[in-house]
Protein backbone atom coordinates (compact mmCIF):
# COMPACT_ATOMS: atom_id res chain seq x y z
CA UNK A 1 0.00 0.00 0.00
CA UNK A 2 0.98 3.65 -0.23
CA UNK A 3 1.64 6.10 2.56
CA UNK A 4 -1.27 8.55 2.79
CA UNK A 5 1.15 11.36 3.73
CA UNK A 6 4.03 11.07 1.22
CA UNK A 7 2.68 8.58 -1.32
CA UNK A 8 5.63 6.18 -1.10
CA UNK A 9 5.11 2.40 -1.23
CA UNK A 10 5.19 0.76 2.21
CA UNK A 11 4.47 -2.69 3.63
CA UNK A 12 0.79 -3.52 4.16
CA UNK A 13 1.32 -4.29 7.86
CA UNK A 14 3.46 -1.20 8.57
CA UNK A 15 2.20 1.11 11.30
CA UNK A 16 4.61 3.94 10.39
CA UNK A 17 5.94 5.10 7.04
CA UNK A 18 9.73 4.45 6.89
CA UNK A 19 10.11 7.42 4.49
CA UNK A 20 8.34 10.25 6.31
CA UNK A 21 7.52 8.74 9.70
CA UNK A 22 3.77 9.33 9.42
CA UNK A 23 1.31 6.92 11.03
CA UNK A 24 -0.43 4.56 8.64
CA UNK A 25 -4.11 3.54 8.66
CA UNK A 26 -3.25 0.54 10.83
CA UNK A 27 -2.25 2.92 13.60
CA UNK A 28 -5.23 5.23 13.13
CA UNK A 29 -7.82 3.06 14.82
CA UNK A 30 -11.19 4.72 15.30
CA UNK A 31 -12.89 2.07 17.42
CA UNK A 32 -14.10 -0.19 14.57
CA UNK A 33 -12.60 -3.60 15.16
CA UNK A 34 -12.21 -5.62 11.97
CA UNK A 35 -12.52 -8.87 13.96
CA UNK A 36 -15.75 -7.77 15.65
CA UNK A 37 -17.19 -6.63 12.32
CA UNK A 38 -16.33 -9.95 10.66
CA UNK A 39 -17.79 -11.93 13.55
CA UNK A 40 -21.05 -9.98 13.32
CA UNK A 41 -21.38 -10.60 9.59
CA UNK A 42 -20.39 -14.25 10.05
CA UNK A 43 -23.41 -14.67 12.33
CA UNK A 44 -25.81 -12.37 10.43
CA UNK A 45 -24.92 -11.15 6.95
CA UNK A 46 -24.55 -7.38 6.73
CA UNK A 47 -24.54 -6.59 10.44
CA UNK A 48 -20.77 -6.11 10.47
CA UNK A 49 -21.08 -3.60 7.65
CA UNK A 50 -23.64 -1.64 9.65
CA UNK A 51 -21.27 -1.76 12.63
CA UNK A 52 -18.49 -0.33 10.44
CA UNK A 53 -20.67 2.69 9.64
CA UNK A 54 -22.39 1.72 6.37
CA UNK A 55 -25.83 1.12 7.88
CA UNK A 56 -27.93 1.30 4.72
CA UNK A 57 -25.63 -1.11 2.86
CA UNK A 58 -25.47 -3.48 5.82
CA UNK A 59 -29.23 -3.51 6.42
CA UNK A 60 -29.89 -4.06 2.70
CA UNK A 61 -27.58 -7.09 2.56
CA UNK A 62 -29.10 -8.42 5.78
CA UNK A 63 -32.66 -8.36 4.39
CA UNK A 64 -31.58 -9.77 1.02
CA UNK A 65 -29.93 -12.68 2.86
CA UNK A 66 -33.04 -13.23 5.01
CA UNK A 67 -35.32 -13.26 1.95
CA UNK A 68 -33.17 -15.83 0.15
CA UNK A 69 -32.96 -17.92 3.34
CA UNK A 70 -36.76 -17.98 3.64
CA UNK A 71 -37.24 -18.81 -0.04
CA UNK A 72 -34.66 -21.61 0.32
CA UNK A 73 -37.27 -23.57 2.29
CA UNK A 74 -39.11 -24.15 -0.99
CA UNK A 75 -36.56 -23.28 -3.71
CA UNK A 76 -33.20 -25.02 -3.40
CA UNK A 77 -31.33 -22.55 -5.60
CA UNK A 78 -32.10 -19.81 -3.08
CA UNK A 79 -29.84 -21.64 -0.60
CA UNK A 80 -26.91 -21.03 -2.95
CA UNK A 81 -27.92 -17.39 -3.42
CA UNK A 82 -28.20 -16.89 0.36
CA UNK A 83 -24.70 -18.32 0.83
CA UNK A 84 -23.31 -16.08 -1.92
CA UNK A 85 -24.84 -13.03 -0.22
CA UNK A 86 -23.28 -14.18 3.06
CA UNK A 87 -19.80 -14.54 1.54
CA UNK A 88 -20.10 -11.19 -0.27
CA UNK A 89 -21.16 -9.62 3.02
CA UNK A 90 -18.03 -10.93 4.75
CA UNK A 91 -15.81 -9.50 2.00
CA UNK A 92 -17.53 -6.12 2.13
CA UNK A 93 -17.41 -6.16 5.93
CA UNK A 94 -13.62 -6.44 5.89
CA UNK A 95 -13.33 -3.63 3.35
CA UNK A 96 -15.72 -1.27 5.13
CA UNK A 97 -14.13 -1.93 8.55
CA UNK A 98 -10.68 -1.14 7.12
CA UNK A 99 -12.01 2.04 5.51
CA UNK A 100 -13.56 3.02 8.85
CA UNK A 101 -10.09 2.70 10.36
CA UNK A 102 -8.50 5.00 7.78
CA UNK A 103 -7.49 2.73 4.89
CA UNK A 104 -8.01 4.49 1.56
CA UNK A 105 -8.23 1.49 -0.78
CA UNK A 106 -8.12 -1.76 1.21
CA UNK A 107 -7.59 -5.07 -0.55
CA UNK A 108 -8.13 -8.36 1.26
CA UNK A 109 -5.66 -10.25 -0.95
CA UNK A 110 -3.08 -7.46 -0.73
CA UNK A 111 -3.45 -7.20 3.04
CA UNK A 112 -3.06 -10.97 3.49
CA UNK A 113 0.21 -10.84 1.56
CA UNK A 114 1.52 -8.33 4.07
CA UNK A 115 0.33 -10.25 7.15
CA UNK A 116 2.73 -11.92 9.56
CA UNK A 117 2.98 -15.71 9.35
CA UNK A 118 0.54 -16.27 12.21
CA UNK A 119 -2.01 -13.91 10.71
CA UNK A 120 -1.66 -15.58 7.32
CA UNK A 121 -2.36 -18.97 8.89
CA UNK A 122 -5.42 -17.58 10.70
CA UNK A 123 -6.67 -15.99 7.45
CA UNK A 124 -6.24 -19.25 5.50
CA UNK A 125 -8.09 -21.21 8.19
CA UNK A 126 -10.95 -18.68 8.21
CA UNK A 127 -11.26 -18.68 4.41
CA UNK A 128 -11.13 -22.50 4.33
CA UNK A 129 -13.94 -22.64 6.91
CA UNK A 130 -16.07 -20.29 4.80
CA UNK A 131 -15.48 -22.42 1.70
CA UNK A 132 -16.41 -25.61 3.60
CA UNK A 133 -19.63 -24.00 4.85
CA UNK A 134 -20.51 -22.91 1.31
CA UNK A 135 -19.81 -26.35 -0.22
CA UNK A 136 -21.60 -28.13 2.63
CA UNK A 137 -24.63 -25.87 2.25
CA UNK A 138 -24.84 -26.49 -1.50
CA UNK A 139 -24.52 -30.28 -1.04
CA UNK A 140 -27.17 -30.29 1.69
CA UNK A 141 -29.54 -28.17 -0.41
CA UNK A 142 -29.44 -30.50 -3.41
CA UNK A 143 -29.20 -33.85 -1.59
CA UNK A 144 -32.38 -35.97 -1.35
CA UNK A 145 -33.82 -35.98 2.12
CA UNK A 146 -34.42 -39.18 4.06
CA UNK A 147 -37.25 -39.69 6.48
CA UNK A 148 -38.62 -42.70 8.31
CA UNK A 149 -42.35 -43.30 8.71
CA UNK A 150 -43.81 -45.32 11.57
CA UNK A 151 -47.08 -46.04 9.79
CA UNK A 152 -46.90 -46.59 6.02
CA UNK A 153 -50.14 -48.56 5.69
CA UNK A 154 -51.84 -45.66 3.88
CA UNK A 155 -49.43 -46.11 0.96
CA UNK A 156 -50.34 -49.72 0.14
CA UNK A 157 -53.13 -51.63 -1.60
CA UNK A 158 -56.08 -52.69 0.58
CA UNK A 159 -59.27 -54.61 -0.14
CA UNK A 160 -62.71 -53.47 1.02
CA UNK A 161 -62.39 -55.19 4.40
CA UNK A 162 -59.13 -53.35 5.15
CA UNK A 163 -56.75 -56.29 4.62
CA UNK A 164 -53.91 -56.36 2.12
CA UNK A 165 -55.19 -57.59 -1.22
CA UNK A 166 -52.42 -60.15 -1.69
CA UNK A 167 -54.00 -63.61 -1.30
CA UNK A 168 -54.44 -66.46 -3.79
CA UNK A 169 -52.40 -65.00 -6.64
CA UNK A 170 -50.15 -66.88 -9.02
CA UNK A 171 -46.34 -66.59 -8.91
CA UNK A 172 -46.29 -63.84 -11.54
CA UNK A 173 -48.31 -61.56 -9.32
CA UNK A 174 -51.78 -60.13 -9.81
CA UNK A 175 -52.32 -56.64 -11.16
CA UNK A 176 -54.23 -54.48 -8.69
CA UNK A 177 -55.51 -50.92 -9.04
CA UNK A 178 -57.40 -48.65 -6.68
CA UNK A 179 -58.81 -45.10 -6.76
CA UNK A 180 -59.53 -43.14 -3.60
CA UNK A 181 -61.06 -39.71 -3.15
CA UNK A 182 -62.32 -37.66 -0.20
CA UNK A 183 -62.54 -34.02 0.89
CA UNK A 184 -58.76 -33.90 1.43
CA UNK A 185 -57.69 -35.07 -2.03
CA UNK A 186 -57.51 -38.08 -4.31
CA UNK A 187 -55.08 -40.82 -5.26
CA UNK A 188 -54.62 -43.59 -7.82
CA UNK A 189 -52.73 -46.72 -6.85
CA UNK A 190 -51.53 -49.58 -9.02
CA UNK A 191 -49.22 -52.49 -8.49
CA UNK A 192 -48.93 -56.24 -7.98
CA UNK A 193 -49.71 -58.58 -5.11
CA UNK A 194 -47.89 -61.93 -4.88
CA UNK A 195 -48.59 -65.30 -3.29
CA UNK A 196 -45.78 -64.92 -0.77
CA UNK A 197 -47.53 -61.89 0.71
CA UNK A 198 -45.31 -59.28 -0.90
CA UNK A 199 -46.80 -56.18 -2.49
CA UNK A 200 -45.45 -53.79 -5.14
CA UNK A 201 -47.21 -50.43 -5.12
CA UNK A 202 -47.12 -47.25 -7.21
CA UNK A 203 -49.32 -44.43 -6.01
CA UNK A 204 -49.82 -40.87 -7.23
CA UNK A 205 -52.19 -38.31 -5.83
CA UNK A 206 -52.87 -34.75 -4.77
CA UNK A 207 -54.21 -33.13 -1.65
CA UNK A 208 -53.36 -30.73 1.16
CA UNK A 209 -49.64 -31.52 0.77
CA UNK A 210 -49.40 -30.95 -3.01
CA UNK A 211 -48.94 -33.64 -5.62
CA UNK A 212 -47.01 -36.72 -4.58
CA UNK A 213 -45.67 -39.97 -6.01
CA UNK A 214 -44.95 -43.09 -3.94
CA UNK A 215 -43.12 -46.15 -5.24
CA UNK A 216 -42.81 -48.86 -2.62
CA UNK A 217 -42.35 -52.56 -2.02
CA UNK A 218 -43.21 -54.77 0.97
CA UNK A 219 -41.81 -58.26 1.16
CA UNK A 220 -43.54 -61.29 2.67
CA UNK A 221 -42.09 -60.54 6.11
CA UNK A 222 -43.51 -57.02 6.16
CA UNK A 223 -40.25 -55.19 5.44
CA UNK A 224 -40.92 -51.97 3.54
CA UNK A 225 -38.75 -49.85 1.27
CA UNK A 226 -39.41 -47.22 -1.38
CA UNK A 227 -39.45 -43.53 -2.20
CA UNK A 228 -41.87 -40.66 -1.67
CA UNK A 229 -41.61 -37.61 -3.91
CA UNK A 230 -43.37 -34.50 -2.66
CA UNK A 231 -42.74 -30.76 -2.96
CA UNK A 232 -39.70 -31.25 -5.19
CA UNK A 233 -37.98 -33.47 -2.62
CA UNK A 234 -37.39 -37.21 -2.45
CA UNK A 235 -37.83 -39.10 0.82
CA UNK A 236 -36.42 -42.61 1.19
CA UNK A 237 -38.77 -44.98 2.99
CA UNK A 238 -37.18 -47.78 4.93
CA UNK A 239 -38.70 -49.95 7.65
Give an overview in words:
The structure is a single chain. Mean pLDDT is 78; it is low at 146-171. With 239 residues, the protein is of the alpha+beta class. It contains six helices and seven strands; from the N terminus they run ααααααβββββββ. It folds into two domains: 34-143, no CATH class; 146-238, no CATH class. Strands 1-7-6-5-4-3-2 form a seven-stranded mixed sheet, with no helix packed on it. The protein has helices at residues 34-43, 47-51, 55-71, 77-100, 108-114, 117-142, and strands spanning 145-146, 174-182, 185-193, 199-207, 212-218, 224-230, 233-238. Helix 1 (34-43) packs antiparallel against helix 4 (77-100) and helix 3 (55-71) runs antiparallel to helix 4 (77-100). It is elongated and about 95 Å long.
Short précis:
The chain is α+β, with helices and mostly antiparallel strands and 239 residues long.
Note the main attributes of this structure.
alpha+beta, 37% helix, 239 residues, 6 helices, seven-stranded mixed β-sheet, 2 domains
Low-confidence segments? 146-171
Q: Give the overall form.
A: elongated
Cα-based radius of gyration, to the nearest Å: 30 Å
What structural class results from the helix and strand content? alpha+beta
User: Into which percent range does the helicity of residues fall?
Assistant: 25-40%
Total E-strand runs: 7
Q: How many H/I helices?
A: 6
- Strands of the widest sheet, in order across it, are 1-7-6-5-4-3-2
- The total tally of domains equals 2
Mean pLDDT: 78
Give the CA-CA distance, first to last residue: 64 Å
Order of helices and strands, N to C? HHHHHHEEEEEEE
Amino acid sequence: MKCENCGEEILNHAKFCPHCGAKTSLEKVEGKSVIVALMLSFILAGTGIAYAGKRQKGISLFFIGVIFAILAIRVRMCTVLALIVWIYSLHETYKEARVANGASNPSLVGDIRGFSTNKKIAAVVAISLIILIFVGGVIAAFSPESEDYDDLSQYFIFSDDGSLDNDNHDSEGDEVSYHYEDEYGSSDTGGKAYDDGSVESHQSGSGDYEDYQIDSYMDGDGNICGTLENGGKTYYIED
